[in-house]
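Reading group handout, session on sequence-to-structure problems. Before we discuss, look at one worked example. The prompt was deliberately terse, the way you'd type it at a terminal:

> structure FAD synthase

The input record follows.
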Amino acid sequence: MQLRGWVVTSSSLLLLARTRPHRNTRLSTSTMNQCQRQLTTTTATPASVVVPTKKSPHLFTLKKKSMSSKCPEDSSDKKDEEHPQEHPKEHPQHHSKSLPLEVRQRIEERQRQAFEFFSQTLQIYGVEELIFCFNGGKDCTVLLDLLMRYLRQEGISSGDIPMLYIKSGDSFVEIDDFVERCVTSYRVKLVEYEGSLKEALTHMAADMPRIKAVFVGSRNTDPYCENLAPMQPTDNDWPPMMRLNPLLEWSYHDVWHYIHLNDVPYCSLYDKGYTSVGNRSNTIPNPHLRRDDNCDCNTVVSDCDLVETVGYRPAWELEDPTLERAGRLPRK
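And the output record:
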């Protein structure tokens, strides 16, 4: 997800004084589709749909699903009740045990730094003032897993910090399905809007005025993110909010090393050669991972009949991280 609307205002860590949300019981009059989905914490009865009142957000209870058709359903035993963030493995280990010791130590240090960032954040904001943005991509997947591990370590419920997801009519089915399964597996509350990121945050600020800061999975190699600070306020024409960037210093391969070392489930598109996932109309498998060079896929996705049939190596086999976005098509 390109976050073009975020504007840099500082290059250093900004620690803002904690403010209390304004009391505002009026919901936005926008016609944007908003819903919240929450996995029930009981396993004795099947999931059901809760019909909301007219002016309240839609509240759903999702059925439990495995992370992929290759995996068994989540267990409902006592261990699962005690550790609701534990989830099934969607993909086998990719030789993670053969990674060099220095790589393992590097990822452990990355995780330690992320946990320290979460601790610093909770010294500034209350849990009820936080939300995290999730788009189903690899970076947000790492952010989700790190945050859930930290909350479990601190004895905080996984549902206390909701997940913000922005739906699009042009999204990949694999992404939408993966998001729902993450909600189920990690047991988080989903807040869902349609439109652009700016529109979503605007309506969220009206509907959830207590939210003061949002975790984002941006890295400093992403477009418009090279000068971001770990804590960066939004620009004046955006809803006033603090942007929290715990993954800024992570590299492309750091992300995949973390996923493989911790057996973190991820969207299946990355097995098919996608390295940076946007929408269907602007994303194709990375041509630098193509096994067959007979197809020129740098034009329009619909014009290439071989996109789904030609072989691609998985995303983590991309040697040059500067080519991460080579599968993104230019805007028309």
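Points for discussion. First: The two ends are 17 Å apart (CA to CA). Second: The chain has two domains: 35-63+97-244, 267-323.
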